[in-house]
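Reopening this ticket.

The earlier resolution said the output was attached, but the attachment link was broken on my side. Pasting everything inline this time so it's all in one place.
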Amino acid sequence: MLLKDKVALVTGAGRGIGKAISLKLAEEGASLILCSRTASQLQEVTAAIRSAGRPCMSGVVDVAKEEEVTRFVKDGLDQFGRIDILVNNAGISKPKPFLETSNADWDENINVNLKGAVFCTRAVLPGMLERGSGTVINIASAAGLRGLPGSIAYTASKAAVIGLSHALAEEVGQRGIRVNVICPGPIKTELLDNSPVKDFVLKNKAHLLPPEDVAGTVVYLASNLSGGLNSQMICVRNSNRW
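Inline output:
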């Protein structure tokens, strides 16, 4: 019970990495505030957490819309009183070659992957600063480190999340807030299974890891196990390529 009495908000919690993170945080004693854009998937995760005896509220939220984020965070604070851990996991990946990537594609990647993290952090951070404690964990990607051909808008948005994480960590670290970023490599999720770049990634000797490996890293960063770790980037992968 590494997170007993903690309250965690996880975005993109309905499937894949977000689902694994939510279940693992609950297993370690946290109360959960969950959001995603797909109601049916979110309801399944919420039910599983409640069945395990942990408090959980959830709502359908598009993190690219700040007004939805602000309203949802307020509801979470009204119910639980505080948010100790924020996991910015919500993201999209719609790979296309550079010249086929439209302005709308760029906007969607930036709005969800980058601005979604900005909006959620902006809504949660004031309460953390007031208490002088809190942890923000951003889920970026190994693609944001090396660049993934055929998925340039996604790559750029995740590189921006890494930069956001480091800059914010330096800004608020002296006020008791820790900000760290996780860069998963290829993870066995529905998102990767349906991706046109899957074969390219795998032929470069990268092997799929389960979402639970990312979830375990989140627990490490969210708990006292990581001590004062701040402004750090952790790659979750089993090769040095992707």
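Reporter confirms the inline version is readable. The chain has nine helices and seven strands. The radius of gyration is 17 Å.
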